C-alpha cells in the first residue's frame, strides 16, 4: 500500500476511528458554522432605488434624458431673395429685394430710412437700423449714389446697392454719416472703396 500525503492521512485516521477526540474537534466547527448561518439569515437585504444607485455610481438621470429642443439643429440664415438686378447709367448696381407699395420718393423729398453700410467684401462699416435717420434727396447733402438708389423707391421697399467711390463720400460732411468720432472715422477710412448699402424706405415726409 502506497504512502498517502499527510493531509489525506490525517483525514483518513479521523474517519476510520470515531473517537471522542475527533468528535470534540468536529463539534466546535459545526457550532461555528451554525452560528454564522444564523447571523446571515437574520440580516435583511434592502434594495436601493434605481435612481439612488445611479447617482451613487456617478450617473445623473437628468443628463441621460434626451431633449429635442437642445438636439434640434439651428435654423439656417437665408439671404433675402432678389426680385431683380439692374445698373444705373452712373455705375450704381442695384438689387431690388422688396418692392414697396407706399408713396414714391422723388428728388428733393425728405425721406426716413433704415440702412446698413458694408464694404464690398461684406465687412460691416456702419448701420442706421437702430434709429431711423432722415435724409434730404439733395446731391449737396447726401452721397450721390445713395440718392440715386432712393429715388424711385416706394415706402416699404428695400434695396441693396453697390456704390462706387466716385459717388460715395467725396466730402466728409455728406450724409449718412455717424455722429460718434469712432464710427465716423472708421467709415471715412473706407471712403475710397466701393461700399454696399442696404436701405429700406420707411417714410416720405
How is this structure best described in words?
With 205 residues, the protein is of the alpha+beta class. 31% of the residues lie in helices and 21% in strands. It starts with 5 loop residues before the first helix and ends with a strand.
Question: Any idea what the shape is?
Answer: globular
Radius of gyration: 45 Å
Measured as a percent range, the helix fraction is: 25-40%
List the helices and strands in order: HHHHHEEEEEHEHE
Summed up, the helix count is: 7
Structural class by sheet pairing and helices: alpha+beta
Beta-strand content estimate: 15-25%
User: What is the residue-mean pLDDT, rounded to a whole number?
Assistant: 76
Query: What characterizes the major β-sheet?
Result: 7 strands, antiparallel
Q: Based on DSSP secondary structure assignment, what is the total number of beta strands?
A: 7
Query: Residue ranges: pLDDT <50 for 5 or more in a row?
Result: 1-28, 41-45, 61-71
- End-to-end CA span: 129 Å
Write a short abstract of this structure.
By secondary structure, the protein is α+β, with helices and mostly antiparallel strands.
Write a concise keyword list for the protein shown above.
7 strands; 7-stranded antiparallel sheet; single chain; globular; 205 residues; disordered N terminus; alpha+beta
Question: Secondary-structure blueprint of this entry?
Answer:
Blueprint: H1 6-16, H2 20-42, H3 50-56, H4 61-64, H5 68-71, E1 84-87, E2 93-98, E3 110-119, E4 124-127, E5 133-136, H6 144-150, E6 158-163, H7 181-188, E7 195-204
Antiparallel strand pairs: 1-2, 2-6, 3-4, 3-5, 3-7, 6-7
